[in-house]
Amino acid sequence: MTEFSPLPKLPLTTESDDSSKIKARTCKPWFVLLIWRLIIELNKKGENATLSAISKIMTKRLSMARLEKKVKSALNDGLIAKSSEVYSITESDVGLFHEWYYRIQSVIRKKKLEKKDISEVLHLILQNVKSKFGSIVEKSELKNENELLVKHLPKLLCHPRFNFSNVEGKIKNDNYESLFEFEKDCKTIDYNLSVLYRPRSEISKESKRMCEFVKQQIENVNYCVECFVRQNDTNCKDWFSEACNPPHK
């Protein structure tokens, strides 16, 4: 039998050059978030977060057998701790140094825009996103989440604090080199929401629609940036009657 030489170690993600072996997690991140939320709620009431107390709240969602299995997975992943049958959130500061997915980037050929033009276009796209997907913009800020819960999110996400406020700041500071970078940031926010609220949740579905909307907006820009800017200018009511440079044939 032919022996094959082992493959060289490769970086796990574009975020890090770390190629060391890692232990894969088995528990779903949205379940971990749910358990953390229940632990915090029970502690606020002065109750111990035992499996029995958790199961009383979770009986409509999971059977006892499935709940025990998922809690054991979260325990093995080091995301919760257990002492005298009482569960708590681990106080470890160890964050997530690799992502649970691969970034796939495709080459996009389009008209070269100056940085100032990119910022102007992205400002318009962001306003359209805020107008059409306000609930997703608000959800990305995690404003309604418990601060203790938010504190532990680096254990589940590489960029837990990345939201549309960060995106707006990058636009104002002319940080974007291309429209693709903006689209990638929107997908990062979509990924965060899918991880935290499960891929098939209404939040995740709306977030996916937001990404499709952003993609369509960028396509419109690529067709004609002048038409896009005029179309989104509230002061330009007859934008379609103005000739672009060069004019459309």
UniProtKB/TrEMBL annotation:
GO MF terms, alphabetically ordered: transcription corepressor activity
Keywords per UniProt: Bromodomain
GO biological process, one term: regulation of signal transduction
Organism annotation: Dinothrombium tinctorium
Gene Ontology cellular component annotations, sorted alphabetically: nucleus
Organism superkingdom: Eukaryota
InterPro entries to which the protein is assigned, alphabetical: Bromodomain-like_sf, ZMY11
Name the record gives this protein: Zinc finger MYND domain-containing protein 11-like isoform X5
Record has Cytoplasm as a keyword: no
